[in-house]
Amino acid sequence: MSLPPSSSASGSSTLYNQFALLPPPPRRILSRTPEDVRCRLPDFTLSDDPVAAVREWARQEFFVNLDPGWVHVYVGTGCIGALILIAGFILLLRIYAKTFWIARFPRRTYGRVIVPNSLLGWTLGCGAFGTVLLAVYWKLYAYFRLGRWPGSFPLWIVTAWYPLYLAAHVAAWGLFYAVPSDLTEGRLLQGRSGILRRLSHPAIINVLGICLPIIAAITVAIPLAFAQKRYSEALRMYGEWLQRYEGQETLSEEMLIDAQRFWYKLVDAFHIIGGIFFAWTSWGVQDLSAYAFVSGRLLLTLWKQIRAENPNENAWGVVTTIARRPGNDGPGQSGPEETAEQERDANERSGDDTLEANLIKSPSDLNSQRRQSDAQSPATADLERGSERNASSLAAAATTNSPISAQATPKIGAANARSRIVHHRIERSKEAAGRRRKRHHLYSVFNHVLLQAASILTATMCYCALSLWTAVVMSGAHENPYNQYSSILTAELIISVYLGIIFGGLTLLAIFKHTYEPVLHFGQISTRFGHGSGSGSGSGEGAKAKRRRSGGASAAHDAAGGGGNKGIALFKLGGGGGGSGRRGSQQLHHQPSGPAVTTFFESETLQPTATMGNVRLAPTDEEEALRRSLSRSGTNISNSPLLEELKEEQPTNDSELEVHLPLPQSRSSSRLA
Predict the structure, then answer these.
(1) Residue 329: CB partners within 8 Å, gap ≥ 6?
(2) How many CA within 13 A on the CB side of residue 93?
(3) What's the rounded Cα separation, in Å, for the pair 610 and 600?
(4) Is residue 486 within 8 Å of 64, Cβ to Cβ?
(5) What ranges in 550-655 are assigned the alpha helix state H?
(6) How many structural domains comprise the chain?
(7) Are 470 and 615 in a shared domain?
């Protein structure tokens, strides 16, 4: 029986004047109940049956009335159960595809780096949280609907939050390694501030990633043990109170004092539980901050890459060859203004008119130049190539009509020149097609990362707000003798049901539909975006023979599904130098691991080895169109020695890896040969 507050304020004073009862416990920081009501028994003498009113009041302190929330529990059970089945189906697909892993431990120069699987970690954590949430719902049903003894009530409502915290923690930890530079040496972090550089070091991330969940568990488990002990004592005292005063028909001072004793124990237990939810709120804010930092850093990296790709649209267009004019029209017989106008006209029409100057370069020089340009950002490399084109064009134009230069210039055969022009055109068409595809997939990746970050961050914020509200209201709810905790727990139950349905459904269904699937694959060394075979002994006949011998392994790798057109390179990581020939072999021998790179969300880490074969990509539509056009014009390119050498090219520095985007027709993960 519960009395209205208006009629019990004065009535409670009457009860306390009639009996010498215990004073209220000291007021706590979060006590929100007015002092004239806080921890004061209602005046049971106003009831027709005072003893029955005392028994009903004592029962409601332990057995909360949650009748308005049971229909929502039924709905939540069905929806969350379906989400758990989806999560289990995702894991079964991973096991079937042999891509299921929890963490990997690549070796670095300073030790091993722990790289958790961000996607599967989040999926497992959400599935575990949904399972525990269902268990909590039906434990509450057994306690407060069926009337079973609620001996472990604090344990269930507190520990249910740990899988959710762990899921967000693993997701942020794995997402930290989605930017490939974070698995390289610490020198790449020197551009940041001192504190951020130290905190961003992979060794510090390893320690924090392992220690933070342990510290969180300790900060929750120790106070939970005290809260559970006090709650169990209060429940035991309540059971003894029922047995002692089972047959009593009138109110007595001993009966009311014993009721006060277990009530104060219960209030003390829920004060500790409120502090535990404050701890959960702080850990949730830590997860929220960490995930916001790593996702924002990844989005910023992608956006910078997109901005770097956009200005190069015109520079990587169709290549047009502008031949030098005859003698009387050459720049040697024209004024400076006419010469400059001709140069501007040629640059506007072609964007690159250095084919004649490039004809005297050897294939290894061309490959070495491409390798150096790949080490730079796209915008910087394009600007440097543009300045080199202008300088080479002016130098060639100034020496066109010079008899000394004409005698000193070596003769170049027409067939050899034609082959090298074809080679240059093919390379340019590859780069143009690759950049367009790369930019398209960069936008797709950016949108996917943004959607997942918005979903996880919003869910984490909502659960942090729910935990904070629970901490505030739970500390003072049991101080009110009119049992406001019943309505509070009902509201928390309904909110948790629909938060789990909305955000769990959004995340898991999106993962199942490949919206948030990891979109970067790696472990392949591609020929699509310029790699250098080096010069010197590394590009000689011995190196070619070695590459021919490794062709069988590459073919077997392609047949097994590891080759083919797997995707477009986004980021390229290398050891920093060309490293050709014997020197490159020594570098690979002493540092076989090379830089480790990861995929988005899955944080799939692979180590490059010296036995990795090259993946030959199928020609693009632009390449085929160019070949057909040249064939119709009578140019024989099938037996070109330069193209044969191009087909046999293999990078001698195997420490360079490229991170790849899968094309729409292929979503399978890349494998090592």
Answers:
(1) none
(2) 15
(3) 25
(4) yes
(5) 551-559, 581-590, 621-632, 641-648
(6) 3
(7) no
Domain containing residue 147:
67-244+260-312+448-512
- How far from each other are the two terminal CA atoms of the chain, in whole angstroms? 75
193 Cβ contact list (under 8 Å, min separation 6):
none
Are the C-beta atoms of residues 478 and 266 closer than 8 Å to each other? yes
Cα Rg of the chain (Å, integer): 36
Q: How many residues does the chain have?
A: 673
pLDDT for the residue 584: 38
pLDDT digits 0-9 by tens, 23-80: 888 888 777 777 777 888 888 888 888 888 888 888 888 888 888 888 888 888 888 8
Q: How far apart are CA 591 and CA 585, in angstroms?
A: 10
Residue 313 has pLDDT above 60, yes or no: no
The reported pTM is 0.61
Strands (E), 74-168: 103-104, 107-108, 111-112, 115-116
Strands, sheet with 657-662, edge to edge from the N-terminal-most edge strand = 521-524, 657-662, 567-573
> What is residue 278's predicted lDDT score, i.e. its pLDDT?
92
What φ, ψ does residue 4 adopt, rounded to 5°? Answer: -65, 145
Place of tokens 């993960």: 669
Whether 474 is in a domain gets the answer yes
The CA-based angle 506-179-510, given to 5 degrees, is 15
Domain annotation covers residue 569: yes
Q: Helix 378-398 and helix 363-374: axis angle, to 10°? A: 140
**Which residue is associated with the tokens 């070109």?**
640
